[in-house]
Amino acid sequence: MKIIIDAGHGYSTPGKRSPSGMREYEFNREAALAAKETLLSYEKTEVYFTHSDKEDVSLMRRTGLANKIKADVFISIHANAFGSAWNEAHGVETYVHQTKPAAALSLAAIIQKKLAARTGLASRGVKAADFHVLRETKMTAVLVECGFMTNPKEAALLKTPLYRKVCGQAVALALAEHYKLSKKESSLYKVQAGAFSKKENAEALLRRLKGAGFDGFISRG
Length: 221
What we know:
Layout: E1 2-7, H1 24-39, E2 46-49, H2 59-68, E3 73-80, E4 92-97, H3 102-119, E5 123-129, H4 132-135, E6 140-148, H5 152-158, H6 161-178, H7 199-211
Parallel strand pairs: 1-2, 1-3, 3-6, 4-5
Antiparallel strand pairs: 4-6
């Protein structure tokens, strides 16, 4: 499954900052990294980024990449704002295109539920808009707003590594639930040279192994 995680904007995007100067992209990229890390713990997942730390990538290039690789789903991660001064606007919300595709609505509902539950912020619900990344993508596309940069309390949260990780993980877990992804099995491989009821027999074998140039140890169990 090909998943696009899009950290909105970039380091040099005009505006898109909290009144205290935090760039939105700082939050977006870290949440995207957390989402990718979690998603790669599932079977048959490929995760792609559309953003760059070296340049501001245009919206057209972002959606063009997603369409070119024929991604299955596109998730754009953002931090919200209301005006440019501190205010009381608050909460998390999720967007689908204004045509309200059924698949996007279904995924958005799960993302919104997990995001609100894991962040503890007020849920502003699932909304519809004509954003470029929702309109020009040829796959299921959702945009998430993870709190307000213009709210003093939420801006403080958006600056913390823990909150960024929580938001990214919430998005990833929602994708896993919606698409019924299976966790990768963790494997442990062992090589055992012998098993004995008497310790001296185990010690004798270990000496022979070491004499032959192999390292080893005795485990009781």
